[in-house]
Task: inverse folding
């Protein structure tokens, strides 16, 4: 029975040996032989048990380390790192031999000889543990340290040490020495929040690990035993001593020769830390990037902080910093309380990239990002739902006349902010002066649905159906970022691109991640967009956007909303402007508007703020002096401004060819497009005599001595047919 069991368990060979032993070996030696065989079998079983147990300790996933995600600009310059553990993975091929030797020398000089556990070191450690009656460390190999750091806790129990040994033996069976060393050198902690040799090299020496010399490599190898005690930034003397211990150990193990050891020990620590500037001004932008990565690339926040991605972003660091600094100036923030907030966003004209975004005056990561908070846009909405659609439909031209008077629309009776009404005026001037009643009149003619249709086409759905949207009267509103994206279209032939911050995302494997971005949409035609650019340029030069100073090309629109509880005060103040390079959207207001929180200054404040930011940027960007008209669109004529005519006179004259005639003269305007209509009054009703264009002189051949007529002239706008004020009257007799 026993023989059958032995054959089944141990095989024929073991059974044969046992039979021979029974036959030839004396009885007292038989038990010794049986014991040795049993010990051998138990050893095999134990070894197999260790390997099997090691599989449960070590998991392949444990060696996928958390890596820093790098945000860089389009020139490849690092902006910031995002991480749970500040680590940049370095392949073993990029780590010089002398750096690897330094760590092996000081941490585990028998690394290449043992199979995961160093029995000699264990026996020494056990002896110390017994003598001192403690659980002293000191016997762990590099492989064991790796297993402990990646797969186990740091408690000093016998069970943990057993698991550590099991995991190390198993790992040595599964991975090569080079692979284990690579994992180890990328996993270890160097203090100051630094993990792995690559990040340590960058932190202490501002160079990649591949460029470290022997002394520098030894300095890094000195740290893992006690990063805080041996840190050259905390205790340079202790760090120097520990580095020299590493160098001495390398010499003892024949890793370096005597001269190299002496030369390296004679060096100073030679730290070369790059300056780490505090950059609070980038916080808003980083939050926008993180949200975009989550929404468009479908990466969780945890994955971003641990996945080792390389994210190229559109940030213009100068623009971001200048906008932030300008927002720290109190002169722009006038109100009832001191907690006035603001947001600024700058978008690139050519591609819609967000170049700068400030979500609050003292924004901290995770705060309310006001760049993406919806507010009532006020008059900044007029070009988008009134004037743009009116021009696009062909119902109106820039110099078409519209009524400027107060009208009741079924209980809705808007008024002009300045309380004055001109009777009629051109679209051009209605936008220039930000008149309310013409805007509502036009939208009423177009239809509210028609006015909203264009924004709907680019993905912005306004829920309101009343005429109040002509004046920005929205329940929910629009964000500064949305308005920047919409205004950007005016100088880009009407093409709308949803603003974005990310140029490209690369995984740790170097592959670029795919993203589905919305296709560009056409907001308005190139012709309408160019007309709006010229009209909005006039708003800045001679209309409501004149406040502040900016000497180069700029078009834009102001906007402000009345405070619901305080008469004459403001809730929101806006300026949205653009030049050929950038679009800027600026909002000022309180997070919560109530009877205690109100602005005392309207749109002039964000207008001045925006121009100050652009002026600062112009010093380095050298922005364009003028807008360039796109091919295939007609230029918008300058408006005709009718003069007040002075020094009109009628004189009797004689010419050889003309004979006796009456010569009428006046001081003409410089605009040669203006028509001058001449009238005479010799009875009850004035009589039209004739007209001339661009001149200040007219001849009347019919004298009319008997009636003694008086004459006068009226300037006329040829674009609209509007008449100006009559000149003074005069008679030739």
Result:
């Amino acid at each position: 029975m026993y023989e059958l069991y032995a054959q089944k368990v141990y095989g024929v060979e073991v059974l044969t040996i046992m039979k021979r032993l029974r036959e030839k070996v004396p009885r007292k030696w038989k038990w010794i032989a049986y014991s040795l065989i049993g010990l051998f079998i138990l050893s095999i079983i134990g070894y197999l048990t260790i390997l099997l147990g090691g599989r449960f300790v070590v998991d392949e996933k444990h060696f996928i380390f958390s890596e820093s995600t790098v945000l860089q600009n389009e020139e490849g310059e690092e902006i910031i790192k995002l991480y749970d553990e500040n680590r940049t993975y370095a392949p073993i091929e990029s780590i010089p031999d002398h750096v690897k030797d330094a760590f092996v020398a000081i941490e585990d000089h028998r690394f290449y000889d043992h199979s995961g556990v160093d029995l000699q070191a264990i026996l020494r450690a056990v002896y110390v543990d017994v003598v001192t009656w403690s659980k002293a460390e000191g016997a762990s190999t590099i492989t064991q340290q790796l297993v402990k750091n990646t797969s186990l806790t740091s408690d000093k129990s016998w069970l943990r040490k057993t698991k550590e040994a099991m995991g190390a033996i198993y790992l040595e069976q599964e991975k090569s020495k080079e692979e284990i060393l690579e994992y180890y050198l990328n996993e270890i902690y160097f203090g100051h929040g630094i993990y792995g040799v690559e990040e340590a090299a960058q932190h202490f020496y501002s160079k990649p690990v591949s460029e470290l010399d022997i002394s520098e490599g030894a300095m890094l190898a000195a740290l893992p035993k006690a990063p805080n005690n041996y840190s050259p930034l905390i205790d340079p003397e202790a760090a120097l001593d520990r580095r020299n211990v590493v160098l001495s150990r390398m010499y003892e193990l024949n890793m370096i020769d005597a001269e190299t050891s002496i030369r390296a020990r004679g060096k100073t620590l030679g730290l070369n830390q790059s300056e780490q500037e505090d950059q609070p001004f980038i916080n808003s932008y980083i939050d926008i990037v993180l949200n975009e990565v989550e929404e468009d690339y479908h990466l969780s926040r945890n994955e971003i902080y641990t996945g080792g991605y390389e994210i190229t972003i559109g940030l213009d660091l100068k623009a971001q910093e200048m906008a932030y600094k300008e927002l720290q100036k109190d002169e722009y923030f006038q109100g009832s309380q001191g907690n006035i907030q603001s947001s600024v966003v700058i978008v690139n004209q050519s591609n819609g990239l967000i170049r700068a975004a400030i979500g609050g005056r003292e924004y901290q990561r995770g705060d309310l990002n006001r760049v993406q908070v919806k507010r009532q846009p006020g008059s900044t909405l007029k070009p988008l739902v009134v004037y743009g659609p009116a021009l696009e439909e062909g119902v109106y031209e820039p110099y078409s006349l519209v009524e400027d008077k107060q009208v009741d629309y079924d209980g809705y009776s808007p008024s002009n902010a300045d309380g004055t009404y001109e009777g009629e005026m051109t679209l051009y001037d209605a936008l220039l002066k930000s008149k309310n009643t013409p805007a509502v009149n036009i939208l009423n003619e177009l239809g509210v649905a028609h006015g909203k249709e264009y924004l709907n086409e680019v993905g912005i759905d306004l829920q309101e159906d009343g005429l109040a949207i002509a004046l920005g009267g929205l329940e929910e509103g629009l964000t500064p970022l949305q308005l920047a994206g919409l205004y950007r279209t005016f100088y880009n032939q009407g093409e709308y691109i949803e603003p974005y911050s990310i140029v490209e995302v690369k995984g740790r494997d170097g592959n670029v991640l795919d993203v589905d971005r919305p296709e560009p949409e056409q907001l308005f035609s190139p012709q309408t967009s160019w007309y709006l650019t010229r009209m909005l340029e006039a708003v800045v030069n001679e209309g409501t956007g004149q406040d502040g100073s900016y000497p180069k090309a700029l078009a834009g629109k102001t906007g402000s909303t009345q405070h619901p509880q305080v008469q004459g005060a403001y809730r929101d103040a806006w300026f949205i402007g653009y030049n050929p390079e950038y679009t800027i959207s600026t909002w000022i207001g309180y997070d919560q508007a109530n009877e205690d929180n109100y602005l005392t200054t309207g749109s002039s404040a964000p207008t001045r703020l925006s121009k100050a930011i652009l002026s600062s940027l112009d010093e380095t960007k050298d922005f364009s002096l003028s807008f360039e008209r796109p091919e295939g669109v007609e230029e918008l004529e300058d408006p005709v401004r009718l003069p007040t005519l002075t020094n009109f006179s009628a004189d009797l004259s004689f010419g050889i060819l003309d004979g006796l005639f009456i010569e009428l003269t006046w001081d003409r305007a410089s605009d040669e497009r203006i028509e001058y209509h001449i009238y005479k009054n010799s009875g009850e009703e004035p009589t039209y005599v004739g007209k001339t264009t661009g001149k200040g002189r007219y001849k009347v051949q019919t004298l009319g001595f008997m009636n003694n007529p008086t004459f006068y002239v009226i300037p006329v706008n040829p674009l609209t047919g509007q008449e100006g004020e009559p000149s003074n009257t005069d008679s030739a007799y």
About this structure: The chain has four domains: 2-57, 88-265, 327-621, 649-731.
